[in-house]
Structure prediction request, 241 residues.
Amino acid sequence: MTMLQVDNMTKEFGGLRAIDSLDLTIKKGMILGLIGPNGAGKSTAFNCIAGSFAPTRGEITFDGTRITGEKPWNLCKMGLARTFQIVKPFASKSVLYNVTVASFATTGSRKIAEEKAVAVLESLNFGDKKDILSGNLTIADRKRLEIAKALATEPKLLLLDEVMAGLRPNEVDEMVDILKALRDRGITIFVIEHIMRAIMALSDRIVVIQFGKKIAEGLPSEIANNEKVIKAYLGEDYVVA
Ligand SMILES: Nc1ncnc2c1ncn2[C@@H]1O[C@H](COP(=O)(O)OP(=O)(O)OP(=O)(O)O)[C@@H](O)[C@H]1O
Ligand SMILES: [Mg+2]
Prediction:
């Protein structure tokens, strides 16, 4: 049972090939980690899958339906939600307001939207902050708000772009637990993350890209010991030493 399949996807920006013939598959109910050096093309891959950009070439299939070039709002209605690397809440509005706006993806009723938003916030241990203005949240809580907004659209597949960047170690551990609990509730997760400890603890499988190309794929334990991956992250010298 496949939730997402990307076949031979390429994305060019003028002369720059940010994604180069990428293939990947995520099985339903799994967490796939995507790692690679800065500028490797990770966010671009998400932008193509979530409909922000159309890929230059290739095909994307989501839960059995071809979605290549489909618009983000249609994808959201189909059950594909994403967070952004740069978070942009309505800063002068409350946490609850921000999540309620996202809930309108699934209902036209203000009452139901708000009830769903409250339930999502509680599932993320975030209910006690619902009345805080989003602009006053800590980084950790802004990341949690991003996830809450995505979850309020009731996704089958959740794309998370660096939701742990800037968190303290204990906050990272808490986020790993929250994401595993979402996976256990049946949500398939595709996650970009630079914090190795987190991605290793979280992912069922990991794909590594560099210069837009896949250079490795496997279980976290296989990736941690892969020489190409170590070179891509830490440089030749590290491997030789
Ligand atoms: N809208 C755009 N227009 C032109 N070039 C872009 C655009 N978005 C990304 N790029 C380029 O594509 C390449 C891949 O960028 P991308 O943001 O996907 O990398 P990333 O792997 O997410 O990096 P990071 O780890 O720093 O977030 C970079 O060279 C970047 O400058
Ligand atoms: Mg990025």
User: Anything to note?
Assistant: Residues 13, 16, 18, 36, 38-44, 85 surround adenosine-5'-triphosphate (ligand 1) (CB under 6 Å). Strands lie at 2-13, 16-27, 31-35, 57-62, 65-66, 80-82, 157-161, 188-192, 205-210, 213-218. The mean pLDDT is 93.
